């Protein structure tokens, strides 16, 4: 990722000129919001303190609208934080949510219904949903996803672009604000639950004709950019996310943003300045297993360069392929007939629906 091309401030500012952008989700989505706000103002990377901080009164000229330090700071499911950045030609808003569909989400939908309609909605809600509410999360999570997608499509106009981000890979050992002592026993298998939740949410979003960005696929070999807590990511990873989002939005809106126009810079020398938390360099594995034949997904080593672990894909055996660790990202058909940019080369066959 240190050799890839990133979008620049000028490109992002022009693409999102006179656009209203809403970001919905947890702390990862909050960092997505922060990186977009920073890119709209200058070509810089988020600092470690900015990535870690939550609920502050102001970040890079934005302001806290509700919750956060205005109320009691806690790690409960009732935590709220609404932020907004406004300039003469940009409006970006962030809602912290702990469940994809709830009474609080209904109030957000009411904001969209009665107020300004967003041009772009970037949303993800998964880790809190599958860990904090019910040990048998599958049925409830899928029902909430269906309710959320259907109501979102009813509230938003047809021209609004909705991008559902699939959850990024979790570490084998995780810790974070959502992982309270009462659910610490779930930490060992939560990364596998995320893969299953991504599979369901991706297919449901596709069925509702929403855009899907498979961040789990894009970052499966970038684990060295994950923070020590096993959940969050560093500034380079979030700039990569911003680049993917900007390219996707540009393609959806028919804006010509060729790859050769992106910032062709080497950022390897910036790593120490980004205060990366992961200092351990692991030697590459030489005895890893190749991708198994279709239908056999037991003991499948997914990352030979960093963390390697055997993933039991038995729950997906009837679908015929493992989500997120196949040759291509989980790519979804959009409401508009348009060319899907790299690496979205083709759609999967129909047998897994």
Written overview of the protein:
With 353 residues, this protein is an alpha/beta fold. It has 9 helices and 9 strands. The chain has helices spanning 9-15, 27-39, 48-52, 103-114, 127-131, 138-155, 190-207, 215-218, 235-252; strands spanning 19-25, 63-67, 81-87, 90-96, 120-123, 161-165, 211-213, 300-301, 310-311. The strands form 2 sheets. Strands 2-3-4-1-5-6-7 form a 7-stranded mixed beta sheet, with helices on both faces. It has a two-stranded antiparallel ribbon with strand order 8-9. The longest helix has 18 residues, at 138-155. The two termini are 33 Å apart. Mean pLDDT is 78; it is low at 272-327, 330-335 and 337-353.
Which secondary structure elements does this structure contain, and how are they paired or packed?
Layout: H1 9-15, E1 19-25, H2 27-39, H3 48-52, E2 63-67, E3 81-87, E4 90-96, H4 103-114, E5 120-123, H5 127-131, H6 138-155, E6 161-165, H7 190-207, E7 211-213, H8 215-218, H9 235-252, E8 300-301, E9 310-311
Parallel strand pairs: 1-4, 1-5, 5-6, 6-7
Antiparallel strand pairs: 2-3, 3-4, 8-9
Helix pairs in contact: 2-9, 4-6, 6-7
Summary keywords:
353 residues; alpha/beta; 7-stranded mixed β-sheet; two-stranded antiparallel ribbon; 9 helices; 12% strand
Total number of helices: 9
**Strand order in space, largest sheet:** 2-3-4-1-5-6-7
Indicate the overall shape: globular
- Class inferred from helices and paired strands: alpha/beta
Main pleated-sheet profile: 7 strands, mixed
Helix content: 25-40%
Query: What portion of the residues fall into strands of 2 or more residues?
Result: 5-15%
The low-pLDDT segments are: 272-327, 330-335, 337-353
Distance between the termini: 33 Å
- Determine Rg (CA atoms, Å): 19 Å
Average pLDDT score: 78
Order of helices and strands: HEHHEEEHEHHEHEHHEE
Give the tally of β-strands.
9
